[in-house]
């Protein structure tokens, strides 16, 4: 019994700094996430460019090398999030591999897939034009990034979640 109590005490002491740090505000004025894909929406970049997205002061920036695209947080009109599964084996080679594995064995390729989060930003430019940008984040980063943008003043409308699909039993 004493072992369990000491284990619980050890866990609470070691976990306390981590939880208290997460509850506080960020120590710096900058937050960034590497390995984010800008699918579309920033004119400076080709579709599906991978770079680093960051919040610096009052703007969101996407950087790849020396190129940089910025969106002012105050110009963001809405933010949408979604979870997806991405396969690393795709294209003509992936299709050929799926077809070559008999008896539905192409499912083994799903082992090469991983979860990602998709963030869509709807924003107005300096001239009042309406735009959208789609970013693909590594799993677990987009939700925290959205919360940071909302804390900085980005507008978000209440979204209705679609009901979960029901299974039809025959």
Explain how this protein is built.
The protein contains three helices and seven strands; from the N terminus they run H-E-E-E-E-E-H-E-E-H. It is an alpha+beta fold and 170 residues long. The chain has a single domain, classed as Pleckstrin-homology domain (PH domain)/Phosphotyrosine-binding domain (PTB) (PH-domain like, Roll), CATH 2.30.29. Strands 4-3-2-1-7-6-5 form a seven-stranded antiparallel β-sheet, covered by helices on one side. Strand 3 and strand 4 form a beta hairpin. The longest helix has 22 residues, at 2-23. It is globular and about 55 Å long. Residues 1-27 and 88-101 have low confidence and may be disordered.
Query: What's the number of extended β-strand segments?
Result: 7
Under CATH at level 1, the class stands as Mainly Beta
Rg, Å, rounded? 21 Å
The parts where pLDDT drops under 50 for at least 5 residues are 1-27, 88-101
What's the total helix number?
Answer: 3
How is the main sheet built?
7 strands, antiparallel
CATH topology: PH-domain like
Average residue pLDDT? 73
What is the count of distinct domains?
1
What's the CATH superfamily, by name? Pleckstrin-homology domain (PH domain)/Phosphotyrosine-binding domain (PTB)
Principal-axes shape call:
globular
Helix percentage: 10-25%
């Amino acid at each position: 019994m004493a072992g369990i109590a000491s284990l619980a005490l050890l866990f609470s002491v070691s976990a306390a700094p981590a939880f208290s740090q997460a509850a506080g505000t960020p120590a710096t004025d900058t937050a960034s996430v590497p390995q984010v894909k800008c699918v579309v929406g920033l004119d400076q970049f080709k579709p599906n460019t991978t770079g680093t997205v960051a919040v610096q002061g009052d703007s969101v920036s996407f950087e790849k090398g020396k190129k940089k695209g910025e969106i002012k947080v105050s110009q963001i009109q809405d933010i949408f999030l979604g979870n997806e599964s991405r396969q690393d084996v795709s294209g003509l080679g992936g299709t050929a591999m799926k077809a070559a594995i008999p008896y539905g064995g192409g499912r083994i390729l799903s082992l090469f897939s991983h979860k990602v989060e998709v963030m869509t930003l709807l924003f107005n430019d300096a001239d009042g034009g309406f735009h959208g940008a789609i970013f693909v984040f590594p799993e677990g980063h987009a939700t925290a990034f959205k919360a940071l943008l909302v804390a900085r003043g980005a507008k978000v409308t209440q979204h209705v979640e679609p009901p979960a699909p029901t299974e039809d039993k025959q």
